[in-house]
Amino acid sequence: MTAEILLKGGSVLTPHGVLETDVLVGDKVLAVGEGLVADHVIDASGCWIGPGLVDLHVHLREPGQEWKEDVGSGSAAAAAGGFTAILAMPNTEPAIDSGHLARFVADRGVTTGLVQVVPVGALTLGREGAQLSHLDDLWAAGVRVFSDDGDSVADAGLLRSAMEYLAHRGGVVAQHAEDPGLARGGHMHEGAVSSRLGMRALPAVAEEVVVARDLALVKLTGCRYHVQHVSTRGTVELVRAAKAEGLAVTAEVAPHHLTFTDERVLSMDPDYKMYPPLRTGADVDALRSALEDGTIDAVATDHAPHAAAEGEVPFEEAPRGVIGLETAVAAVMMAVELDQSTFFDRLSIAPARIAGLTEQGLPVEVGSPANLVVIDPGMEWTAGPFVSRSQNSPWKGQQMRGRAIATIHAGRLTHEVVAV
Amino acid sequence: MRHLLTTESLTRAEIEELLDLADEFTDVLGREIPKVPALRGLTVGTLFFEPSTRTRLSFERAAKALSADVMSFSPSTSSLSKGESLKDTVLTLQAMGCDLMVVRHKATGAPWRVAEWTDCPVVNGGDGAHQHPTQALLDSLTVRRHFGKLDGLHIAIVGDIRHSRVARSDLFAMSTLGARVTMVAPPTLLPLDIDDWPCDVSFELDDVLGGMDVVYLLRIQAERGGATVFPSLPEYVQRFGMTRARFDRLSPEAVVMHPGPMNRGVEIAPEVADHPRSLVLDQVRAGVAVRMAVLFRLGQAVRTEVPS
């Protein structure tokens, strides 16, 4: 029996639009309206209440790299950021390429009990890009989204096979789009800044040629296709055109790509190293517009923890990626102006739909799942230190605006900012 | 000036001060006892994470001519192979009493990171394809000695500019000193998006050869991928090599330069490399004096911090 929690005085995202009302939460949403009472009351005045956030792209590092993060610490970071479900990428050691490994990750999530942990399955065995992973075995373990994230599936024939195999079941092929021949081991965006630094760089087309090729395969196979961490204006245009054509295509964008440009790399700080890399101002503008107009369906953090010592090296030698779960709400709010409905669509409803999560991303009404978040859009706070085991964030120490002040997962209060 | 990391931010006055100082140290190096006690008691660490002979020897010769002690660090004999982070390596050397650090690294920006972590002044001894400021200073000194100035001179930098820290460093130093620089290379060896660089660009050496006072030749950086982006070496030599025939078409006062190591018969013909109007060995000589100037200039700051 979970203790009842009353969320008092917020703007609530309901099936009938945004209403100023109170919400009583137990195992489910028990009541929506005025005059409700509970032992635990959270003052939500001035706050947005809606379904808990869903992150399509998280690296939990378990099994194999628990010094960076594990399911427990990553779940806690997710709850602190307002999330109630996260998709765990399969680039662990070993890679999540068979059912028992996917079950292990999901079970660790259940044991931890802070968020729903949803394993993503590898598309190829060991993420080696040579042969298909145990797709049926993964499917039986509940996996619906498949990706070799961290690497592109470079072999078009292999990708086609995966798409053909998964299409009739409604499985999603998610692609980290990066052509290895064009990327050539680059460390940042190819452009004026990389030229000045003399740094090997990934051109925007390294992403775009893969997406263009994959879209042709989507047309051929009818498989659902999801573009992970879109970073360029050109990719936005490809996705926009594919959607106009009616293809089953979705896309995500990471908060850092909505915020920073490649100029940041001039600092040589590895907290600005991510794949795909930070691009130009024109790309940032295109990504922001695409998120606003829905061409990009979802925000996904690409939360990628790395231990401090791993960053005590030159930029080029630092590992890829930055953490993002705890800063996502603020970063999105500071980058784009979304109204409450659109905000919850991009950070909860759409990602839940893409991943096929039936208990997530639902507007608040009596009987809806007790997966909720309370967001104070005006709260000013300083980012870090983070709940995550790793601290590699480009927002570390920065003034932020907007924050999840309470998160409820399966009726349990998993995060609350206690007023000072 | 606390560190010397890049020529991009150096002012004309700062460069000229270092070159004037280098002229004085050139005189010192010509004495019977080519040594001054300027940095006695200080320890210069040479942290060369990328193999190098000439630059390391040049720095060590410079440090010793200033009576500094030298600590040498090279990755093959170090705990880098045991997985130590760059930061720990740097802090360890500092704890052993290193006062100044010269850092060479194959990764762009490594000396900047070292400068963040240590209290020592840091000299960039070459980072990736980014910067090599003492090379730019010694090249500028060599040209200044030969022509008396850089103002108004036209300098062509020819070859693998995309992968060259020398090209980037020389461009900013030499243009700040008043020279006009033209980068000459096939498109795949030129950096992209360089419209805001203070230089002209040409894809044909023969188009610009006649107007040059200095032709500065670069090696193809095979280790950074420079050899895979043009058809073949013979074709490269055909279009961009400083052959004897091209040398003969230069103005009679023009000189050729090369940062070394040279690939004779590729970017420079052997008889050009050995010609009296090749300044290659003058560059090497200038290197010791320039590095004395840099170490002296940065070492003075350490001196004033440490109570005697």
Describe this structure in words.
The complex is a heterodimer of chains A (420) and B (308). By secondary structure, chain A is of the alpha/beta class. Chain A is 30% helix and 23% strand. Chain A contains twelve helices and 18 strands. In chain A, the strands form four sheets. In chain A, strands 1, 2, 3, 4, 5, 16, 17 and 18 form an eight-stranded mixed sheet that branches. Chain A has a five-stranded parallel sheet with strand order 9-10-13-14-15. Chain A has a three-stranded parallel sheet with strand order 6-7-8. Chain A is globular. With 308 residues, chain B is an alpha/beta fold. Chain B has eleven helices and nine strands. Chain B has helices spanning 12-29, 54-65, 86-95, 110-117, 133-147, 165-176, 205-208, 233-240, 244-248, 270-273, 280-305; strands spanning 43-48, 69-73, 100-105, 122-127, 154-158, 180-184, 200-202, 214-217, 255-257. The two termini of chain B are 22 Å apart. The model of chain B has no long low-confidence stretch (mean pLDDT 93). Chain A binds chain B through residues 184, 190-192, 194-200, 268, 309-310, 312-317, and chain B through 8, 85-88, 105, 107-110, 112-113, 117, 127-131, 162-165, 168, 191-196, 224-225.
Topology readout:
The complex is a heterodimer of chains A (420) and B (308).
Chain A: E1 5-14, E2 17-25, E3 29-33, E4 40-43, E5 48-51, E6 53-58, H1 71-80, E7 83-88, H2 99-112, E8 116-119, H3 135-140, E9 145-146, H4 156-167, E10 172-175, H5 180-183, E11 188-189, H6 192-197, E12 201-202, H7 204-221, E13 224-227, H8 233-244, E14 249-253, H9 255-259, H10 281-293, E15 298-299, H11 328-335, H12 340-355, E16 372-382, E17 399-409, E18 412-416
Parallel strand pairs in A: 1-4, 1-5, 6-7, 7-8, 9-10, 10-13, 11-12, 13-14, 14-15
Antiparallel strand pairs in A: 1-2, 2-3, 5-16, 16-17, 17-18
Chain B: H1 12-29, E1 43-48, H2 54-65, E2 69-73, H3 86-95, E3 100-105, H4 110-117, E4 122-127, H5 133-147, E5 154-158, H6 165-176, E6 180-184, E7 200-202, H7 205-208, E8 214-217, H8 233-240, H9 244-248, E9 255-257, H10 270-273, H11 280-305
Parallel strand pairs in B: 1-2, 1-3, 3-4, 5-6, 5-8, 6-7, 8-9
